[in-house]
Amino acid sequence: MPGIRAAALAAFLLPAAAEAQDLPVVKLFTTGGTIQSLGKDRLKLAEYREGRIDGETIVEAVPEASRLARIEVEAISAVSSTRMGAEQGLPLARQLTEELARPEVAGAIVTHGTTTLEETAYFLHLTVRTAKPIVVIGSMRPWTAVSRDGPLNFLGAVRTVLTPEAGGKGVLVLLNDTIHSARFVTKRHTYHIETFVSPDVGPLGFADADRVVLYRSPVTRHTADTEFDLDGIEELPQVDVVYGYQEASRAPIDALVKEGARGIVLADGSPAYRNAVLEAQAAGVVVVQGSRKGSGRVVLSDRTAARSEITADNLHPQKARILLRLALTRTTDARELQRIFNEY
Amino acid sequence: MSTERAFATAAAALLAGATAAAQEIPPLPPPGIDLPHVVLVSVGGEIATSCETSLERVGCASGGETFAPETWTRDLPDLGLAARIATEDLRAFSRPDGVAAPEHWRGLAERLQQLAGDPGVDGVVVTHGADGIADTAFFLNLVVPTRKPVVLVAAQRPWSAVSGDGPLNLYDAVRVAADPAAAGKGVLVVANQEVHAARDARRTNSYRMDGFGSVDLGPIGVADPDVVRFFTEPTRRHTHRSEFELAGLPESLPAVEIVAAVPDAPGRLIDAAVAAGAKGLVVDGAAGLSGGQLEALRRARDQGIVVVATSATRGGRVPETAALRESGIIPGDNLTPGKARTLLRLALTQTSDPAEIRRFFAEY
Hints:
The complex is a heterodimer. Chain A is of the alpha/beta class. Chain A folds into two domains: 208 residues, L-asparaginase, N-terminal domain (Rossmann fold); 105 residues, 3-Layer(aba) Sandwich (Rossmann fold). Chain A is built from eleven helices and 15 strands. In chain A, strand 14, helix 9 and strand 15 form a beta-alpha-beta unit. Chain A is globular. Chain B has two domains: 210 residues, L-asparaginase, N-terminal domain (Rossmann fold), CATH 3.40.50; 112 residues, Rossmann fold (3-Layer(aba) Sandwich). In chain B, the strands form four sheets. An eight-stranded mixed beta sheet of chain B has the order 4-1-5-6-7-8-11-12, sandwiched between helices. A four-stranded parallel beta sheet of chain B has the order 14-15-16-17, sandwiched between helices. In chain B, helix 4 crosses helix 5, helix 5 runs parallel beside helix 10 and helix 7 runs parallel beside helix 8. At the A-B interface, strand 11 of A face strand 13 of B. Strand 11 of chain A pairs antiparallel with strand 13 of chain B, so a sheet runs across the interface.
C-alpha cells in the first residue's frame, strides 16, 4: 500500500493541514523546460519532445505542497530555456515585483529549463525589488522519467519559500536539495542530477529531508538593494559574448559592432581581438573582459586598467552579459561600470 | 652527509640565489601613510618553521626549529604594504607541531580578546600548524566576542621549503585582517588564496597546496592578487553573536569523548568513557552503531550523558530521523566530530537539557 504509507509519512513530516484560506500564498510562475516536459516512455531521460504539462499538474502531483501553502499558478511561457530572454524576463520581473508586494504572498517559485536557468535567475536577482524569497527550479529529468527529480525540487522550493531565513538572500536556485545563490550558480553537466554548482563559493544551504538550512548569505548586492530600475524600460541594450580560442579571428567582434551591439563580453581572448576591441571601444561599444574557465575572478591589473577594459569579476560570460545589459541602461562610464561589476 | 642530502643542500643554495635575484620587493608605502594596524601572533606551525634544506617539504626530516615572528617581517617586508605590523610570540601555547594545545586554547582566546579590544588594533593574524587549525579556529569562533577580523593562517610546507606556500598565505592573511570587509564574519582561515569561515573550514589534504576546504559549502571569499573579495558570509552564530563568554567558562571544560560507530564493536569503549567521567559523547556515524554500542549508549543516556551524532560520510548533515529522535541522540548538523565535541563541551557548561543542546547545534 505505497499510497497509504506515503500519506502517513506526509502526515508525520508535515503539520496538519490548516484551513486552506489561512495558508500563505506561494506564486508558481511556469516558463517551461525539462521539468514540464514529457518523454515517450519513462526511460527517455534526455529526449522529451512529447509536449508539456502545466503548473497545475505539478501542484496536483505533489499534494504535500498544498498542505503547506496555497499555490497560485501563472503560466509565463512554455518553452525550452534556450528560447528564454528579456522578452519573457522583463514581464516576469514585473509580475514578480507586483505579486510579491501582496502581503499574503510568502514568496515565489519560477520553473525554468536548465541550460539558461542561471541567466534568468541572475536577471531576476538584479531587478526584482523584494525581500521575499524567489526560488528558481528546474529538473534534470523529464516529468515522465523514472527517478524524476522535478516533484522533489518543487516541494523543496515550497519549503524554502516558507523558511524565514530564506528571505533577503536574493534569488535562490534549487535543484538536488541544494540551494544556490543566483549570483554564483551555474550548470556544470549536461544531464546528471548533481549538475548545478556554485564554483568559487559553494551553495548557500540545503533543503534537507528534516528541514531547510541556510548556512550562508550572499554579500553582493541584489533584489531589495538593487540600483536597477525596469520602470519605462521596454527593451535592453544588445550585448553579446565572444568566445576566445586559439587562432580566433576578429570577424565576430566586427560583425557585432556593425550590427549595433552596445556591449561585448569576451570569454578570454585572442591576439586578433586586440585591434578589433580598440576600434569597437572607439565606436562607443563597451567591452568587458570575462573568462571561459568556469571559476575564478578576472583579476584587475595595470594592463586591464590601461586598456580601460572592464573586468567581469567571477561572473561567467553569460551572466556578465546580463549585468552589462542592465548596467548600460544607467551608464557607459568605464569606472562606473567597473563599480557595478565589483558590487553585483 | 648522504648524497641525497648533499644534493638537496646544493639545490637549495642554487634556488636561494636564483630567488634573491629574481624577486623584487615592491616599493613600500612612504612612512606616515595611514595603514591598518595588524597584530601578527605566532603559535608556530610549518609557517614558522625552517628546515635544514629547502627540499624538505612535509615537515623537517631532521626536526627543524620554529623561529621568532620577527623573521617574517624580515623575510617578507612586503607585509608592510598591507598593514602596520606588530608581532607577538605565543609559541609557548603550541605543541612542537604548531598545533595550539587545547589546554592553551583559553589562554589564546583571552589574549585575542584583549588584542581585539584594543582600539588601536584593526585585525589579528594567528599562525598555526596546518593540522588542527580548523578546530582551534572553531573554538575561537565561539568564544572571542569581537567584530574585528581574527584570521588564522597555516602553511602546508615549511617556511624554508622550495615554492613554500607560507609567504603568500601570510601576506594574504594580513591583507584579509586589514580589510574592513572581513569584519563581523567570525574567525577566518586563510590559505591557498581562499578565505574560509571557521565553522566550515577543514583540512582536506595532508600535504598538497589545496589543503583546506569548506566541505558541503565553500570558501566565503578570495584573497586575489588585486583585491580581497567576499562573496558570502556565514549565517550561524559566532564571535560577537555568540552566547558563550570566556569569563564564564569553568577552569576545564566538561569532558566529551568521540566514539566511532563500528558495526561489530562491543560497548566497552563507551562504558569506559562514561566511567572515566565523560559528560557527553560524540558518535561518529550513528547509522553504523553496533547492538553493543547502542546498549552502552542507552546506559550512558540513563545516567544523563548527552549524545551527539556526526556523519561519518564527511559531507551532508545528520538529518533528524525518527530513529535518532527515539534514541535521544542529538544530530550534530554537518560538523566534524572534533568540532561537534568542542561545541558540546561549551554547551554543557550552560545546560545538560537535550532540547537546549539541540538548539545550540541548530544555531552555531
